[in-house]
Amino acid sequence: MNTRRLAINRLRERLPADGAVIDRFIARHGAPIIEGERATFLFRGAADEVWVRHRVVGLPDPLAMRRLPGTELWAVTTDLPSGSRVEYQLETRRGEHYERFNDPLNPIVAHSPVGSSSVCVATGYEEPSWVHEDPEARKGEIVEDSLQSKALRREQPVKLYLPARYTRAQRYPLLVVHDGQDYLDYAAMKTVLDNLIHRLDVAPLVAAFIPPRDRLVEYPNHAPHARFVARELVPMLEGRLSLLDEPTGRCLMGSSFGGIASLSTAVRYPGDFGSLFLQSASMVFTDIGTDHGGGPAFDPVVKFMNRYRAKPTAPVERIFMSCGTYEPLITPNRSMVPVFRGTGMTVKYVEARDGHNWADWRDRLRDGLSWLFPGPQKFVYE
Fold it and tell me: Name one GO biological process term (predicted).
């Protein structure tokens, strides 16, 4: 697109502009302004400096905004390829006071365990229909349970998803979901399961949503956690529910550190699980030295990954992987695909123009679940 024809540049050509002109400009275009593969972020207000804060690898962070002369309107334009979805906030400086907040001109907001962010969506991105409740879809059930874990030395809660029409006359695959409560809260996973099973994209399954007490301790190759999952949780569920009694019917799932928990548990108990669903897994490693740049929390991750890369094994038969192209973990995730395939495991890997966030992981659920647990509809069209 000719940058001279961008809306913000046409406004610049009309300066000076009074408040009424700025009002009409914002009312007409909204914010951010998406034009082709360009996005213009706006802020209106008195400030000494304004920035767009984000976590998009490849773009300067922060993006400095510039005030249009004679106005209180600030703007910055950047590239935004088709299909992109970006979470961001604005930051202002007034004297010595700095403030960071969601974009007041943008009503689209995403939520996560650490708060909320504004969302900028490019041309071509569409929120999947199956992330919203479908009144025609039969509803599964969430059952709260717990078990006394010797491995973790505590009472461990677990939430179980039972599909609609669950019956002991049928045996179901088991999906163990790390950061389970977050998947339910921020990835709408119960609704997604209800819809995808109803649409015959995914076979009926049982899901165990497990929350950590301290994920930075329990998830990076933690022996007690792996023992809890493989030797306590799975046997308990197989004793209580009608599950497939074979490794191909068991899958470990997780995002970020939860992906490391899934992989390391499978490596510690090879052959116990048939598949892994890894989303933006924190598979950070070093090829030389020990400086990985992730801070102390990543030390056990790097130690595990370096050891695994030195002697790769095939603890499962299949792995589904997803990662956002705008997140720092894209490079290690891409790098691990041939390593996994080299062991003989079947790997399906997908990317999206998104970041390290729950909406990205939610949007990839259909891809992963329908490949790992295909329903009748998948067999018809594939």
Answer: carbohydrate metabolic process
Q: Which of 341, 227, 331 is nearest to 283 (CA)?
A: 331
Give how far Cα 189 sits from Cα of 194, 209, 352, Å: 8, 10, 19
User: In whole angstroms, what is the distance from residue 191 CA to residue 188 CA?
Assistant: 5
Can you count the helices (H) and strands (E) in the chain?
13, 18
Q: Per the structure block, which two tokens stand in for 51?
A: 């920035």
Q: In DSSP terms, which residues pair with 49 in a beta bridge?
A: 93
Place of tokens 């007409």: 28
215's enclosing H/E stretch is: helix 215-218
Which of 84, 103, 121 is the C-terminal boundary of a domain? Answer: 121
The DSSP code for 232 is I
Please enumerate, as own/partner, the contacts of 13-21 that have beta carbons within 8 Å and a separation of 24 or more: 15/68, 15/69, 15/70, 15/71, 16/69, 16/70, 16/71, 17/68, 17/70, 17/71
70: left (phi over 0), alpha (psi -120 to 50) or beta: left
Instruction: Give CA separation, 249 vs 274, 306, 372, in Å.
Output: 6, 29, 10
Q: How many CB atoms lie within 10 A of CB 245?
A: 9
CATH of the domain at 341: 3.40.50.1820
Give me the number of domains the chain comprises.
2
Placement of tokens 């406004």 in the chain: 11
Q: Is residue 162 a contact partner of residue 143, using CB atoms and an 8 Å limit?
A: yes
pLDDT tens-digit profile of 127-158?
999 999 999 999 999 999 999 999 999 999 99
Quick one: 99 and 191 in the same domain? no
Q: What is the pLDDT of residues 371-381, one digit of tens each?
A: 999 998 654 44
Q: Round to whole Å and give the CA distance between 111 and 56.
A: 17
The answer to whether 108 touches 30, Cβ cutoff 8 Å, is no
pTM of the full structure? 0.94
Domain that holds residue 86: 3-121
